[in-house]
Amino acid sequence: MNFEFPDELLQLRDQARRFLADRCPPAVPRRILDTPEPYAADLWRQISEMGWTGAAIPEEYGGVGLGRLAVCVLAEELGRAVAPTPFSSSVYLATEAIMLFGSEQQKRTWLPKLATGETIGTFAMAEQPGASDPAKLQATASGGRLNGTKLAVPDGDIADIAVVATHGGAGAWLHIVDLKANGVARESVATFDPTRSHARIEFKNAPSEPLPGSTTPETIRTLLDHAAVPMAFEQVGTAQAALDMANAYAKERYAFGRPIGSFQGIKHKLADMYIQVEMARSNAYYGAWAVHTNAAELPIAASVARIAACEAGWFVTKENIQTHGGMGFTWQMDCHLYYRRAKLLGLALGGAREWKRRLVSELRARNTTDLAAA
User: Fold this and answer.
1) Total Cβ atoms within 10 A of residue 153
2) In whole angstroms, what is the distance from residue 212 CA to residue 218 CA?
3) Tell me: the pLDDT tens digits for 24-82?
């Protein structure tokens, strides 16, 4: 049994790694931290020209047609480079929502623009701190007009369109809104990782277009499951980069006449980091299989991938700082770039605690069904 990606996707991964090593060194996210730029527009243009933003979009809609596995491959490399781009918002969420639940006309209108990067999309759900329950959403849409307020929308300050989650009742639960239209007010908000911008968005009778396939609250859960898998790969990439950084430093930093990597305490630390990364990668692969085959196990696979990736991202980036000692806490070291990104990604789509509840709920439901069938 082969658990590896197909050869063409391995080649894509190698190409993406070389490209990002050249075009997105740590100086790029540092530039976003040090300047008013909300994201690296030059890098976004380049990856769009290479077709990354249209990787999962079928060719008939202007995409490359490589499928969702290609997005997972690219996500890991973007996470490794802590790339300051709206890739996750536009590709994992907005594009995915339209592919899953949009009408034929909506797909032909929006997917070609999202594929070229001409249009940046995002997903707006959270309305208050804490767990996001679709059944408790207060935003509403009626007669082609949407009202409500969304908090901490990723890339909400730069996106052109948003797929907005509402309490749809018997109607659509997801709606497309042009963020440049009348009735939309945006305000940038500060986050733990300024290399990924966020915004508070208020909708007052904003023109909206329902996604006709989004007819139940589970629609939103399905979208989050699909997005959780590439997000897990992005988190694995960030954790792997932090592990590589810690390993390299342990080999070159000397104390008492020998590399610190020769000391048992550092060896154990690096081993623990490695185990966390590999566990997260294994679960991410499980999720990739589930989303690629549209398996019934997707809710479980997405949950375990998300949980493992959140825990690995936090642990490994934290231990990277500890491996660097006092130097790790300073601004001139790059450790904080990975730690910031890991913390931010750990909260995107809901934190690990929320996904653990989701996993328990899925397992309980499946066990109940199996017992009833027996």
Assistant:
1) 24
2) 14
3) 999 999 999 999 999 999 999 999 999 999 999 999 999 999 999 999 999 999 999 99
CA distance 147 to 130: 21
Tokens of 328: 């790790």
Distant-in-sequence, close-in-space partners of 51: CB < 8 Å, separation ≥ 6: 63, 64, 115
Residue 140, strand partner residues: 147
CA angle 35, 39, 41 (to 5 degrees): 110
Q: Please provide the size of the chain in residues.
A: 374
Q: How many Å is the maximal CA-CA distance in the chain?
A: 74
Residue 186's contacts (CB-CB under 8 Å, 6 or more residues apart) are: 156, 157, 179, 199, 200, 201, 202
Query: Cα–Cα distances in Å, from 52 out to 205, 315, 355?
Result: 34, 29, 28
HEC profile of 209-247: EECCCCCCHHHHHHHHHHHHHHHHHHHHHHHHHHHHHHH
